[in-house]
């Protein structure tokens, strides 16, 4: 399954890299290029999510569970791949729900923020995969400079998780209120 995983990961990685570009052109560009980027984004995101699911399923078949859970690198790789999937699924829902309105007004900045976040997360996922496959890159040195040694399990303190949940709930309440006002 190793070869299949190595082959399939190119789909989410390639599609997500292109999706970052399309979000930037669609949200910040003008004219025909922006229109094309906006129209192409949703189909691309759907393909990327299918590719990511295939990569994740085959990823779990490469090594036995015990090996995955024992290795901090593998644990980090799994965590980042699931976060990437989550963020890009959010972008897909946003674009699906809002259509071209997702690229205008304040929404455009949420889209750009999520795309850059998703871009960073998939880059880390791929970098960690490279480490697992014996092909490390200099990108992990940047992560090291930011305070995370990728050979140790990524750790978020409990209070940070609590703050994140509160921010999420706050955004949901704000969204419902704005939606009611607009209706
Ligand atoms: C979005 C999902 C994922 C992406 C984009 C991704 C990406 C990658 C990449 C780029 C590599 C290096 C391949 C190479 O150098 O040719 C890799 C290797 C690896 N990935 Fe993933 N991966 C994903 C999900 C997973 C998951 C969920 C697991 C579960 C444990 C996993 C396990 C592995 C393992 C064990 C290797 C090393 C294989 C070896 O021994 O050569 N991956 N991955």
Query: How many beta strands in the DSSP annotation?
Result: 0
- So what's the oligomer here? single chain
Report the total helices. 8
Distance between the termini: 51 Å
Number of domains: 2
Order of helices and strands: HHHHHHHH
Rounded Rg: 18 Å
List unreliable stretches of 5+ residues.
Answer: none
Mean pLDDT: 94
Relative helix content: over 70%
Short description:
This protein has two domains: 2-152; 156-183.
Jot down its keywords.
81% helix; 183 residues; binds protoporphyrin IX containing FE; mainly alpha
Write up what this structure looks like.
This protein is mainly α and 183 residues long. The protein has two domains: 2-152; 156-183. 81% of the residues lie in helices and 0% in strands. Helix 2 runs antiparallel to helix 6 (107-132), helix 3 (31-62) packs antiparallel against helix 5 and helix 5 (72-98) runs antiparallel to helix 6. The protein starts with a helix and ends with a helix. The chain binds protoporphyrin IX containing FE (HEM).
């Amino acid at each position: 399954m190793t070869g299949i995983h190595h082959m399939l990961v190119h789909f989410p990685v390639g599609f997500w890299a292109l999706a970052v570009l399309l979000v930037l052109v669609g949200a910040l560009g003008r004219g025909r290029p922006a229109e094309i980027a906006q129209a192409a984004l949703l189909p691309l995101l759907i393909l990327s999510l299918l590719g990511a699911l295939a990569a994740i399923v085959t990823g779990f078949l490469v090594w036995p569970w015990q090996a995955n859970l024992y290795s901090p690198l593998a644990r980090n790789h799994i965590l980042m791949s699931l976060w990437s999937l989550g963020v890009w699924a959010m972008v897909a829902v946003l674009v699906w729900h809002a259509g071209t309105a997702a690229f205008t007004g304040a929404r455009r900045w949420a889209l750009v923020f999520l795309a850059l976040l998703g871009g960073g997360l998939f880059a880390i996922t791929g970098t960690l995969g490279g480490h697992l496959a014996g092909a490390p890159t200099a990108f992990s040195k940047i992560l090291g400079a930011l305070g995370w040694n990728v050979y140790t399990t990524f750790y978020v303190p409990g209070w940070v998780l609590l703050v994140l949940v509160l921010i999420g709930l706050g955004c949901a309440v704000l969204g419902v209120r704005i939606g009611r006002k607009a209706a």
